[in-house]
Specification:
This is CbbQ/NirQ/NorQ/GpvN family protein. GO terms for molecular function: ATP binding; ATP hydrolysis activity. Belongs to the CbbQ/NirQ/NorQ/GpvN family. Keywords: ATP-binding, Nucleotide-binding. The protein has about 280 residues and is an alpha/beta fold. The protein has 2 domains: about 5-185, P-loop containing nucleotide triphosphate hydrolases (Rossmann fold, 3-Layer(aba) Sandwich); about 190-280. About 40% of the residues lie in helices and about 20% in strands. The protein is built from 11 helices and 11 strands. The protein has helices at about 35-40, 55-65, 85, 105-110, 125-135, 175, 190-200, 205-220, 235-245, 250-255, 265-280; strands spanning about 5, 15, 45-50, 70-75, 90-95, 95-100, 115, 140, 145-150, 155-160, 180-185. It has a 7-stranded mixed sheet with strand order 1-2-4-7-10-3-11, sandwiched between helices. A two-stranded antiparallel ribbon has the order 5-6. Strands 8-9 form a two-stranded antiparallel ribbon. A hairpin with a 6-residue loop joins strand 1 and strand 2. Helix 9 (about 235-245) runs antiparallel to helix 10 (about 250-255). Mean pLDDT is about 90; it is low at about 1-15. The structure holds adenosine-5'-triphosphate. Adenosine-5'-triphosphate (ATP) binds near residues 56, 57, 59, 196 and 233. Adenosine-5'-triphosphate (ATP) binds near residues 26, 27, 58, 59 and 233.
Amino acid sequence: MDNQVKHQRGVERDVIQQPAAAAAPFYLPQADEVEIFRAAYARRLPVMLKGPTGCGKTRFLEHMAHSLRRPLVTVACHEDLTSSDLVGRFLLQGDETVWQDGPLTRAVKEGAVCYLDEIVEARTDTTVVIHPLTDHRRQLPLDKKSRFIEAHDDFMLVISYNPGYQTALKDLKPSTKQRFVGINFDYPAEEIERRIVAGESGCRDEALIERLVAAGRRARALKEHGLEEATSTRALCYAAELIGAGLSPRVAARAAMVAPITDDPALVEALEEIFEAHLGAAA
Ligand SMILES: Nc1ncnc2c1ncn2[C@@H]1O[C@H](COP(=O)(O)OP(=O)(O)OP(=O)(O)O)[C@@H](O)[C@H]1O
């Protein structure tokens, strides 16, 4: 992707996406998320995208950043991520010590949308640096340089939060959560999910899409019966892609929606039964 520049130093896997002239990434709205996001952006309020894995949060933000013509800086947060990874640090270059901005600092300076994906995973000191950015101050503290920087007028902070993943030990503090406008996401309604799967995979066989999505949705219900991870819209899109690449629907469903999520023999059997009922025998 030539509109993406990967920065490997400072923080792993943060990605800057410049708004390309091409069409916005395909995104089908589920409810009023586009209106809420636009209103929040108009007032530069920080936003929290809440919802389970693979339900469209990242795609939504890519779409919104593109339509608002803002660059998008994405940081996949992880348990070793510290505030210095976000803000920046002094690095030794030859005999010199030079300051290198982290992805959050770059976004604050350039007026980008900064997406901290699963910030709850990061070290708690990261929430300290985002607090002054989320209120009227719109400032980023650079402790190591003993100063604050003012956010660019167009800067916006967005975090994601998966309510299913939190534990008593690992959760955002209420005082952090209430600094954000929350937008709820879930797996889309069936008709919308069919259109997403068809749109993403390019599959024109409506009957097949209908059966595949119906099967995925039944499999999703097994989350209530011990499946750790629900069958996501992403997994359904993968299955449709595999079918497009020549696999039989059953084999594609197994590869995209069974193997990655469970090894439990009883659950595998239950999933296989669902896919056989909807998609026929494996070829
Ligand atoms: N409303 C939608 N419109 C278009 N595509 C969608 C939509 N929802 C989901 N998808 C498809 O599902 C895939 C996964 O969505 P996405 O990566 O946005 O999920 P996510 O909620 O950010 O997941 P995670 O929490 O795991 O990061 C997308 O790449 C896209 O193919």
